Amino acid sequence: MRVLLVEDDEPVAESLRRGLRRYGFEVEWVTTGAAALAHSAPCDLVLLDLGLPDTDGLDVCRALRRRGDLPIIVISARSDETDRVVGLELGADDYVSKPFGVREVIARIRAVLRRTQPRPPDAGPDRYGSRLTVDRKAARVRVDGAEVALAPKEYDLLAFLTEEPGALMSREQIMEAVWDANWFGPTKTLDVHVAALRRKLAGAITIEAVRGVGFRLETAGGDDGDTRGADTS
Known about the structure:
Layout: E1 2-6, H1 10-22, E2 26-30, H2 33-38, E3 45-49, H3 57-67, E4 72-76, H4 81-89, E5 94-97, H5 102-116, E6 126-128, E7 132-135, E8 140-143, E9 146-148, H6 152-161, E10 168-170, H7 171-179, H8 188-200, E11 205-210, E12 214-219, E13 226-227
Helix pairs in contact: 6-7, 6-8
Keywords: DNA-binding, Phosphoprotein, Two-component regulatory system
Domain OmpR/PhoB-type: 123-219
DNA-binding region: 123-219
């Protein structure tokens, strides 16, 4: 998986490069909007900073989107709601505000790629730990082989949290991804859905609450990994 990283802040870029490579991504790094638009090597996704030295990253986002459907994730210190909305309206597939952790970025990349790239027709359910499987194609969840009935938003929440087991996701990130990118108001509904998942999937996963921040999903046995396309027959 090849990522074009457009970021002029060297410490941020180096941290992302190291982290992405640990997860098996190939990273091409450029520091300006002009270099991003001139980049001709094939890539699968763009991580785009908005605060570039030669041009506004939003203009780069617009230009890249006009060229095609290449997934774009904005990474920016601009946390203002207007910038986020404009970025998404110009064609960005997701928007991550600095500061962020590498695991959060990995989770966002995987989520975007799941939305934008079709799964192989023969891909099976994803396995998390020894007990839980999530069939994203059929939107079915099983524990120990038995299907668990989840409400639509309960399934969406589980699907998001399992994008990167072990990663801490803030309440705002979860609300934006599962409910609405422009969510306003209290997040009490998130607590209700987390409680429902804990009850229905008891023992198969643990959803840890980090006070004042958000939630972290851990699989049974402490296995943070997952097996894509696992055979559950």
